[in-house]
Design brief:
The protein is of the alpha/beta class. 47% of the residues lie in helices and 14% in strands. It has 8 helices and 7 strands; from the N terminus they run E-H-E-H-E-H-E-H-E-H-E-H-H-H-E. Strands 3-2-1-4-5-6-7 form a 7-stranded parallel beta sheet, with helices on both faces. Strand 5, helix 5 and strand 6 form a beta-alpha-beta unit. The chain is globular and about 55 Å long. The mean pLDDT is 96.
């Protein structure tokens, strides 16, 4: 399917690896020029080089922390008027809510709620004026099925979800859509680190924990970043203009509900 977005410009956050990288790659394969942002310069440059080799599109890497005002200024200076915005940032650490301080909550809210809102604020009016825009926020399956030890993430991402639900109905008449992608377990460095930690705590091998978690999913596997990237690209495409304010859960069927 031709998604009809060749020649568009995208700003993709946390894109040096994992799901953000997969989204940038999928968009680039559709002919979209991408500005990719991540904190660490070396892996970011490697990703930029790989996207260029595979797709021959223009790629602009920006080494910055998107969760800070300075980082957002750098990103928007490199891509001041994107047609597509993919918001993404690493989640806060797990733990017991009794141990979290106000500073912990502010960091989580800054990264996973206020940062995407600030980027939407900086880009949505131009999108509405030009009568095209696609905004995709990468959140978490925990928005749909909260995980007790991820309370910081649950709270911050749920706040973003509520904000988007209202705004998305205001922008869609100008062909600007805002949607959320909710990933379950995907084969990323973050998942590998989580499994390694579980293995160490439980005294099991990494392979045993990894395989057990795969078998516990109805799909009997983890998701691949590439399929997540393709879902993101579709939501950013011409044919997704009638989809807005939605929370698309991509978890292999792990969530057992009907809604």
């Amino acid at each position: 399917m031709d998604l009809g977005i060749a020649g568009k410009k995208a700003l993709v956050c946390a894109a040096s690896k994992g799901l953000g990288r997969a989204c940038a790659m999928a968009l680039a394969h559709e002919g979209v020029s991408v500005t990719i942002v991540a904190r660490t310069a070396t892996p970011l440059q490697h990703t930029a080089d790989e996207i260029r080799r595979e797709t021959q599109v223009e790629v602009t890497p920006v080494a910055a922390d998107i969760t800070t005002s300075e980082g957002r200024e750098q990103a928007l200076a490199a891509c001041p008027a994107p047609d597509i915005l993919v918001n993404n940032a690493g989640g806060p650490p797990p733990g017991d809510f009794r141990d979290w301080t106000r500073a912990d909550w502010i960091r989580a809210i800054d990264a996973n709620m206020l940062t995407p809102i600030e980027l939407i604020k900086a880009t949505v009016d131009h999108m509405m004026t030009q009568q095209f825009g696609r905004i995709v926020n990468i959140t978490s399956s925990a928005v749909k099925a909260p995980i007790d030890i991820l309370g910081l993430s649950n709270g911050a991402r749920a706040g973003l979800t509520g904000f988007v639900a209202g705004l998305a109905r205001k922008t869609v008449s100008t062909n600007v859509t805002i949607n959320n992608l909710l990933p379950g377990p995907f084969e990323t460095d973050r998942l590998r680190a989580t499994v390694a930690s579980l293995a160490e705590t439980s005294g099991q091998s990494f392979e045993d924990v990894w395989n057990a978690r795969q078998q516990a999913n109805p799909a009997r596997r983890f998701g691949s970043p590439e399929e997540f990237g393709q879902a993101c690209a579709f939501l950013c495409g011409r044919w997704a203009g009638y989809i807005t304010g939605q929370n698309l859960l991509i978890d292999g069927g792990a969530f057992p509900g009907t809604l």
